[in-house]
Amino acid sequence: MTRRGPIRLGVVGVGALSLRGILPHLSQPDVADRVVVAAVADPIVERARAAATLHAIPSVFASMEELIADGDVDAVTIVSPIGLHFEHARAALRAGVHVHLNKTMTTTVAEADELIELAAAADRRIVASPGEVLRPHVARTRELIADGAIGRVTWAICGAAFARYHEEEPERADAAGGAIDPSWYFRRPGGGPMYDMTVYALHQLTSVLGPARRVTAQSGVRVPERTFLGRTVVTEADDNTVLLVNFGAGLVAVAYGTAAGSPNGQFGMGIYYGTHGTIDGLLLDDAPFEFPGRADTLDAPLGDQAAQNRLLPHVVGAHKMIGEAHVFEDIMQLVDWIRDDRPSAVTAEHARHVVDIIESGYRAAATGLTQDLGTTFRLDGG
Ligand SMILES: NC(=O)c1ccc[n+]([C@@H]2O[C@H](COP(=O)([O-])OP(=O)(O)OC[C@H]3O[C@@H](n4cnc5c(N)ncnc54)[C@H](O)[C@@H]3O)[C@@H](O)[C@H]2O)c1
Fold first, then answer.
1. In the chain, domain spans
2. Would you say the C-alpha torsion 37, 41, 46, 48 has a positive or negative sign?
3. How far is the CA of 182 from the centre of ligand 1 (A)?
4. Beta bridge partners of 253
5. Which of 19, 22, 42 to mutate to test the pocket of ligand 1 (most atoms within 8 A of CB)?
6. pLDDT tens for residues 44-78?
């Protein structure tokens, strides 16, 4: 059923991503007829209030529970630490509110199962980022491989490294209400580069190669301490993990989430090797390959994720100049789904499969035993 009027969205968590990307995108006038931010919630109320003032958001709450009870929202985007995603999404779905989740949906398959069941029972929608499947170069990579452009694909490698990204995000030091502490990125549950960054690589690999079958891994802590504004942050969650993912019929991929260092230095851009060629990020056998919109990104450095974000379907006009446009795209996927009954390709089932690869990978590393994956997904949804 088509909904009249804009979707009233609640934003749960007003940290680095909300300040840099979500709120600037959603307060642009061009989306006001489709979605408005009706409320924000954060235990650091001073920060939430400052953001609400800046973006003319009517309601501010100190908790998710208050936002759900009194915020009069149709949908929420969950921008809290990954370890809180499950409880926040469950509370929203129980209240009949649609849900967008940022990056890794949950930390376990059991949690993802529960959210998917709740959404089905309540006839609510879940969009779980990242929507790598929407990127034109990812879709083209899949087509090229299917068309035999690199012969028979043999193996692939894709991943990302923490480096010092979160300690140095510019929004953190001088935020209203005090510095935004990134230490949850280094704690369990939900910390570590797998849940934070390799999630992009796993969505991309599975968008290109399809569902995986088995996983094994090695994992540990390589950088035991970091510093944030002169304070020591202890690394409690593994920060150095390499997965070996089996897609069946002898096809394997390496997915890494390391403390530092990347083979091609291109965030989340895979290298796909075949019997007759190689796709490395945006290059087919060392030459740029065509995909819709490529001409618009020719000036950008190879592998610049922000340039590729500008090719996503909702990223038009002013949105091309605002950071984290891929997150805005995924939120608009949910908005379209609710308003126009237009299902998104960014499905909870795909996100659950990626959670399965990560959770099973950690189990493989802990036990020394290769794990069979119990989940799957269809690229056309479902
Ligand atoms: N930082 C990025 O580059 C980035 C990019 C894409 C997606 N994400 C995802 O967005 C989410 C938030 O990341 P971030 O970097 O903004 O984190 P952050 O640490 O900067 O902010 C998290 C915010 O959540 C708030 N919070 C903590 N407990 C809460 C609770 N119970 N209820 C409501 N809010 C609570 C914190 O006070 C903080 O303001 C994560 O899922 C992350 O994976 C982050």
1. 134-303+347-372
2. negative
3. 9
4. 156, 245
5. 42
6. 999 999 999 999 999 999 999 999 999 999 999 99
User: Residue 123 contacts by C-beta under 8 Å, 6 or more apart in sequence?
Assistant: none
CATH superfamily of 134-303+347-372: Dihydrodipicolinate Reductase; domain 2 (3.30.360.10)
Tell the burial category of 50 from Cβ atoms under 10 Å away from its Cβ (0-12, 13-18, 19+): middle
The percent helix, strand, coil of the chain (3-state, each to 5) is 40, 20, 40
318 alpha carbon – ligand 1 mean position (Å): 24
SS3 for 77?
A: strand
Q: How far apart are CA 122 and CA 195, in angstroms?
A: 28
Q: How far is the CA of 15 from the centre of ligand 1 (A)?
A: 5
DSSP 109-158: HHHHHHHHHHHHHHT--EEES--GGG-HHHHHHHHHHHTTTTSSEEEEEE
Separation of 103 CA from ligand 1 center, angstroms?
A: 10
Which residues approach ligand 1 with their CB closer than 6 A?
A: 12-18, 41-44, 63-64, 79-82, 84, 102-103, 169, 180, 182, 196, 324, 327
Q: How far is the CA of 80 from the centre of ligand 1 (A)?
A: 4
HSE of 293, CA atoms in CB hemisphere, 13 A = 19
pLDDT digits (tens, 9 = 90+) for 67-123: 999 999 999 999 999 999 999 999 999 999 999 999 999 999 999 999 999 999 999
Bridging pattern class, strands 277-280 and 283-284? antiparallel
Give CA–CA dist 325/328, Å, rounded. Answer: 5
Chunked into runs of 10 residues, the chain (382 residues) has average pLDDT values of 82 98 98 98 98 98 97 98 98 98 97 98 97 96 98 97 94 96 97 97 98 98 97 98 98 97 80 97 94 88 86 97 97 98 97 98 98 94 58
Tell me which residue has its CA closest to atom 19 in ligand 1.
182
Pocket probe for ligand 1: among 80, 198, 355, the residue whose CB has the most ligand atoms within 8 Å is: 80
